[in-house]
Amino acid sequence: MGQVNLRKVAMIGCGYVGSAAAFALMQNRLFAEIVLIDVDQEKAEGEAMDIGHGIPLVGNMKIYAGSYDDIADAAIIVITAGAGQKPGETRLDLVHRNVSIYQKIIPEITKRNCQGILLVVSNPVDILTYVTVKLSGFPENRVIGSGTVLDTARLKYQVGEHLAVDSKSVHAFIIGEHGDSEIAVWSSANISGVPLDDFCEMRGQWNHDKIQENIAETVKRSAYEIIERKQATYYGVAMTIKRICEVIIRDEKSILPVSTMMHGEFGIDDVALSMPSIVGADGFEVRVPISLNEEECKNLRKSAQTLKEILKQCDQIAIE
User: Fold this and answer.
1) Structure letter (DSSP) for residue 122
2) Are 246 and 28 in contact (CB under 8 A)?
3) For residue range 295-318, what is the model confidence (pLDDT) as tens digits?
4) How many Cα atoms are found within 13 Å in the side-chain-facing hemisphere of 82?
5) CB 304 within 8 A of CB 176
6) Which of 1, 135, 142, 310 is most exposed, with the fewest beta carbons within 10 Å of its own?
7) How far apart are CA 233 and CA 223, in angstroms?
């Protein structure tokens, strides 16, 4: 990964998501150094102090509020900064506010000649991953969006609950946009190698299409439901950030549906969206050739088109 400190992570943005992610990373002791950066310096200092007080209970590390100068040698720079989704808003509604915030953040990162990996988390994550690739000039493998990793976890959780089986044994993906046009890939879903429909029948479940439709809708509505009740979602995405960081730092070569640039796959080009991908020390390595049925292919192209329409609306924003 070049001249980076593999034990150091930078968190840009210390709102609900950034602070929850910093807390999760501190607890699993993946990093020896966590630097928190926020436009509100006092907020960053307060979070660093609060999280830091737990250090004697987990093991020695350094957690502090810093500036962009502190990110130069970070192995991973996590960007959670931006406006949050309000009740009734879609992730795409945030686009103009957060693109303009990224126009300030990304040049600050490139100025420091950072050699680490950029992990984009702010919403709409696919649009902001694209914007980050264009603004940063980083090699594409080093710009990853958290994408549908959380949606996929939500899907596995719901299927596991429905079938009364360990969700870690559920193998299924949500792909496309992290948002309303996301696609649950049922055609290749399985429970430890057993096709999903067969496993459902083993559990006495027969109305497959209706059940799948309900589960996919529950997953899609999850964030809205949580935001309605508690104004923000942050624990699930904090665990997502922790997992992606683990995969990179440990060079796990795990398959995660992260958001990266598409170059012709499934007829989709010049847009970032989520597909199952091998992730390791160099960030994104290669997309996994998942098989989709005709309807899933059609919906994936539709999802890409939704994102492209939004990017067109950003034309007045310089992301060339």
Assistant:
1) S
2) yes
3) 999 999 999 999 999 998 876 555
4) 30
5) yes
6) 1
7) 7
Which of 295, 294, 287, 298 is closest to 265 using CA atoms? 287
According to DSSP, the β-strands at 277-280 and 283-287 are antiparallel
Contact 77, 10 (CB under 8 A): yes
**Residue from 30, 108, 38, 98 nearest 66 by CA:** 38
Relative to beta strand 74-79, strand 5-12 is parallel
Check: CB of residue 133 under 8 Å from CB of residue 260: no
Name the pTM for this structure: 0.95
Give the three-class secondary structure for 14.
coil
**Residue holding tokens 């948002």?**
179
Residue-wise pLDDT for 197-215, tens only, equals 999 999 998 888 899 999 9
Do residues 35 and 22 make contact, with C-beta atoms less than 8 angstroms apart?
A: no
Query: Which amino acid, one-letter code, is at 56?
Result: P
Which H or E run contains 59?
none
Q: pLDDT under 70 in the chain at which residues? A: 1-2, 91, 315-320
CA dihedral 152, 158, 159, 165 (to 10 degrees): 110
Asked whether the beta carbons of 227 and 6 are under 8 A apart, the reply is no
Over residues 44-78, the pLDDT tens digits come to 999 999 999 999 999 999 999 999 999 999 999 99
CA of 58: how far to CAs of 45, 55, 96, 169, in Å?
A: 20, 5, 40, 30
Tokens 């924003």 identify what position?
317
Report the run of H or E that residue 276 belongs to, with start and end. none
Beginning with the edge strand found earlier in the chain, give each strand of the sheet holding 74-79 in spatial order.
62-65, 33-37, 5-12, 74-79, 117-120, 143-145, 259-263, 269-274
What does the block give as tokens for 6?
């593999």
What are the φ/ψ torsions at residue 195 (nearest 5 degrees)?
-50, 145
Structure letter (DSSP) for residue 314:
T
Q: 3-state SS of the chain: helix, strand, coil percent to 5?
A: 50, 20, 30
